[in-house]
Amino acid sequence: MIYKSHQTLPAWTYTSDAFLELEKRHLFLNNWQLICHSSNIPNAGDYFTFNFFNERLVAIRNENDEINVFHNVCSHRATKLLEDDGNCGKRIRCPYHAWSYDLFGNLKSVPYEEQFKNFDKEDHNLKPVQMEIFLGFIFAKINPSSAPSVADQFNPYLEELSLYKLEDIKPLGRVTMRPRDVNWKQVADNYVDALHIPVAHPGLSGLVGNSYGIELSEDGGFIHKMWGDLNKTRKKNLSNDLYKKLLPESKHLPKNKQMHWSYYRLWPNLAFDIYPDQMDFMQFIPINSRKTLIREIPYALPDERREMKAARYLNWRINREVNAEDTELINFVQEGMETSAYSSGPLAESEICLIDSAEKIRNSIPVSCLEVEPDADEIVKINEELLENKDKKVKNIFDKKKT
Ligand code: FES
Ligand SMILES: [Fe+2]
Predict the structure, then answer these.
(1) Containing H/E element for 216?
(2) Ligand 1 test: best mutation among 72, 75, 77, most atoms within 8 Å of CB?
(3) What is the CATH number of the domain that holds 399?
(4) Domain-terminating residue out of 87, 108, 141
(5) CB–CB of 381/397 below 8 Å?
(6) Whose CA is nearest to atom 4 of ligand 1?
(7) Scanning 20, 133, 373, 400, which has the fewest C-beta atoms within 10 Å of its C-beta?
(8) Coil, strand or helix: which one is 223?
(9) Which ligand 1 atom lies nearest to the CA of residue 99?
(10) What is the structure's pLDDT at 398?
(11) Of 11, 10, 7, 45, nearest to 334 (Cα)?
């Protein structure tokens, strides 16, 4: 019943809505979530919304050129104030009863104000959310927690990331939401699974040859990093060959980054894909235990060269194929976890990011150490007990429960 080291989480943690509630509380609301890049909201009044579980957030730029993140919830009767993204002018006006707030979140006008007794507008401003801007990306953390800042988590990679001038990138397209009928961990695990690359991605592995690498960041291992060099190509493939041929020099990048693809995963549910020609973020948004949205926006430095446009298109084509291959794989894995045949499986020593992901979840949600699924209405209680007794051995506590 107890997990071994170098072992996946049990299958039930990928199919249980009660477990997802624990993940929401212990992983997602305590860690940083990316809303968008500052360049998505360049002008005063520009806003960008982000829905996450039952939370509604909005990043908005004010007349002082500052960006704030607020709960996107009216203080009157809780209506959602802003939809999607856009510009709200000088005021955020509630669509229900027309309360309006300035761009700093202050409640400024209330129709029929005299009818509200003992009413002080200052008590009803928008609620701010803790935020951080890292390399132009706007992050928010919904619950107070000891999670280090995004900058601290990325600290071991600041130097290499700074080469890409991410503060200056602009959106290449709108946000897309790609639904997947799997648990969010399938998508996240697959992102950091290195052993499948040569087996399941003939196009990608043809492009990066045997240069594909994987590592955990130093400084606490918050970041999972993968990378590949395109000059190590080992197979012929039309999109790959054309991409390599057309990709023009990026003057801001050193020689060893001209043909280098890298991937960074910020715990728990964010991925940065960084290419010489563009970058994108992918965020794995759980909808329920068996449904996930992949939220994605591509960005790039302004570059009007025709070869750059062609290279970006080819990059998209190569990665579209990779995505289709991965979608099939994660569906197979989710299906397998629903069968009676599987509980958990071993992880190879080289799969450092998968081992780390499972360990991080076991540490924050120790009920995931149990091989057999507890009753849904018991999960929270058992987890609380395990958390309280973190110093003692999980095995002892569970054995005691059974007697
Ligand atoms: S709910 Fe917003 S004004 Fe009433
Ligand atoms: Fe993959």
Answers:
(1) strand 213-216
(2) 77
(3) 3.90.380.10
(4) 141
(5) no
(6) 97
(7) 400
(8) strand
(9) 3
(10) 46
(11) 11
Q: Are residues 158 and 260 in the same domain?
A: yes
Q: Which residue among 109, 141, 173 closes a domain?
A: 141
Ligand 1 atom closest to Cα of 74? 2
Ligand nearest to the CA of 193: 2
Could you write out the three-class secondary structure of 229-294? EHHHCCCCCHHHHHHHHHCCCCCCCCHHHCCEEEEEEECCCEEEEECCCCEEEEEEEEEECCEEEE
| Bridge partners (DSSP) listed for residue 176 | 296
pLDDT by position in tens, the chain (length 403): 456 668 999 999 999 999 999 999 999 999 999 999 999 999 999 999 999 999 999 999 999 999 999 999 999 999 999 999 999 999 999 999 999 999 999 999 999 999 999 999 999 999 999 999 999 999 999 999 999 999 999 999 999 999 999 999 999 999 999 999 999 999 999 999 999 999 999 888 888 888 899 999 986 678 999 999 987 776 778 899 999 999 999 999 999 999 999 999 999 999 999 999 999 999 999 999 999 999 999 999 999 999 999 999 999 999 999 999 999 999 999 999 999 999 999 999 999 999 999 999 999 999 999 999 999 999 999 999 999 987 665 544 444 444 3
Q: Which residues surround ligand 2, an ion (CB under 5 A)?
A: 326
Q: What is the distance between the alpha carbons of residues 403 and 388, in angstroms, rounded to a whole number?
A: 20
Distance 111 CA to ligand 1 centre (A): 10
The pTM is what?
0.94
Gap from CA of 95 to ligand 1 centroid (Å): 7
CATH number, domain with residue 110: 2.102.10.10
Please give, one letter per residue, the 3-state secondary structure of 359-390. Answer: HHHHHHCHHHHECCCCCHHHHHHHHHHHHHCC
Q: Which atom of ligand 1 is nearest to the CA of 78?
A: 1
Query: Do 173 and 236 lie in a common domain?
Result: yes
Q: How far apart are CA 223 and CA 155, in angstroms?
A: 10
Ligand 1 pocket, CB under 6 A = 74, 76-77, 79, 94, 96-99
Same domain for 134 and 160, yes or no, is no
Distance, in Å, from the CA atom of 43 to the CA atom of 87, rounded to the nearest integer, reads: 8
Question: Using CA positions, which residue lies closest to atom 1 of ligand 1?
Answer: 77
